[in-house]
Design goal:
- The protein has 256 residues and is an all-alpha fold.
- The protein has a single domain, classed as Orthogonal Bundle (ABC transporter involved in vitamin B12 uptake, BtuC), CATH 1.10.3470.
- Helix content is 80%, strand content 0%.
- It contains 10 helices and no strands.
- The protein is globular, with a radius of gyration of 18 Å.
- The termini are far apart.
- The relative contact order is 0.17.
């Protein structure tokens, strides 16, 4: 059974998951369509490097200095990837991978002299979704609402630069809220699970993401396992089940 104490921790975490799902499902579908699956890892890692550099420089954790540093780093990375996609589209995925590994290695170099470096790196990868406070969700909700309003109003008309900048803003907020692993899972798993859908794809993707967070958090509470990995595995299992059901439905012969 889940106690009242568990619920008091789980409901803000679930709300955080819903907020991340709201922005990442439509952006993830676009990422999959563009064939740049690992862009989220690269941008998230660059934003994380910005957080680490701000912390190393003495800025207060969760303060505006850290937020500005993370956003500036992510936007710089997004603009760089916009430029490389324009000039070398045939090797864009390889460039994204190289930038990711450079940002990850840079974070390790900066953290090498920090006695809490391993803990900082773990927090960036796994996140601390269970410790999200309700008061922290309001500015996140406002930021996501603006991102969604721009995306649904303009869509493809945002262009390459507009898409990358919106993506950078969304990932910058998300990676500090739920960690890099959940950012990647929320972007890619619902998009993969619904890739053969021609109708209601975003809505079904939202359902996969929301159910993944809800069930994953419950599993985490019941088994006393880390919440981030539990949500990732649960969401992946739901996505695989949905894809298998859809594949079986399409494989059945038409009646008559």
């Amino acid at each position: 059974m889940i106690s009242a104490v568990d619920l008091s921790i789980l409901w803000p975490a679930f709300l955080a998951g819903l907020l991340v799902t709201a922005t990442h499902v439509p952006l993830g579908i676009q990422v999959l369509n563009r064939g740049i699956v690992f862009i989220d890892l690269a941008i998230a890692q660059i934003a994380g490097l910005g957080v680490i550099l701000a912390d190393w420089s003495g800025f207060e954790p969760q303060g505006w200095g850290v937020q500005a540093s993370a956003l500036a780093a992510a936007i710089a990375g997004a603009l760089l990837l916009t430029w490389t996609e324009k000039h070398w589209p045939e090797v864009q995925e390889a460039i994204i991978g190289t930038i990711f590994i450079l940002a990850a290695s840079g974070a390790l170099l900066v953290l090498a002299s920090n006695p809490h470096g391993a803990e900082h790196m773990k927090d960036m990868l796994l996140g601390q979704i269970l410790w999200v406070s309700p008061s922290r969700l309001w500015p996140v909700a406002i930021a996501y609402a603006l991102i969604l309003a721009i995306w649904f109003a303009l869509g493809e008309r945002c262009g390459r630069i507009g898409f990358y900048l919106l993506f950078a803003c969304a990932v910058t907020v998300s990676v500090q809220l739920v960690g890099l692993y959940l950012v990647f899972a929320t972007l890619i798993v619902p998009a993969l699970a619904t890739r053969r859908y021609t109708r209601h794809r975003v809505a079904v993707g939202y359902a996969v993401g929301a159910a993944g967070y809800a069930l994953g958090l419950v599993v985490s509470a019941w088994t006393d396992r880390p919440s981030g990995p539990a949500v990732v595995w649960t969401m992946a299992a739901l996505g695989l089940a949905l894809f298998a059901l859809d594949w079986r439905r399409r494989a059945l012969p038409e009646p008559g």
